[in-house]
Amino acid sequence: MKKIIEVVGAILENPNGEIFCAMRPKDKSFPGMWEFPGGKIELEEDPKRALEREIKEELNIDIRVDKLFDEVQKEYEEFIIKLSCYNCTVLDFSEFRLVEHQEFKWMKKSELKTLNWVPTDVPTVDKLVELDYKIIYQKIRGVLGTTEIEIEVSSRKIVLNIISGGDWYQNTPKTLSELEKDLEMFYINKRIIDELILKVDEVYC
């Protein structure tokens, strides 16, 4: 029976909604590939305490480990990796330095898949990208009553909801041009349309 190695990873997110990505060192397995920082759980060690310890050792920063985000079990030729990734809060970043990794990046969730990730981390990356979902909301008051616009947008999908004069309209435009045409049908001010398109463009690709 293959040995199961339990490891923990930290999902660190900055105020801009970007995720911390670390490149593995050249002298370890999967050299040059990207991962969430973290490491092995020691014997009888609490997973959250293990993650706090590993991040201090690897990045020289203090964190608070919050809720469990994802669990992945990946079988390799000689062992099985069980990875638990937690959302974490950075408490002190002032003395940050790379101790083990050779490079780091802060990346938007929609850009995460442009990196070459360690196989164990890929399912968690996929989950983060799917949850990169923003709701853009506008309420416009005019002579015809109230028009409410709600746009749900992820890196892969746009859902437009409009309530105008008591009627409800929904569509899933595939391009920003289609979204713009939908908004124009309701005689919405061009400035507001441009503002909404710009916000959607930040997420949708």
What does this structure look like?
There is one protein chain. Helix content is 21%, strand content 41%. By secondary structure, the chain is an alpha+beta fold. It has two domains: 128 residues, Alpha-Beta Complex (Nucleoside Triphosphate Pyrophosphohydrolase), CATH 3.90.79; 68 residues, no CATH class. Strand 9 and strand 10 form a beta hairpin. Helix 3 runs antiparallel to helix 4. It is elongated.
Question: What tags apply to this protein structure?
Answer:
single chain, 205 residues, alpha+beta, Nucleoside Triphosphate Pyrophosphohydrolase, 2 domains, four-stranded mixed sheet, four-stranded antiparallel sheet, 11 strands, elongated
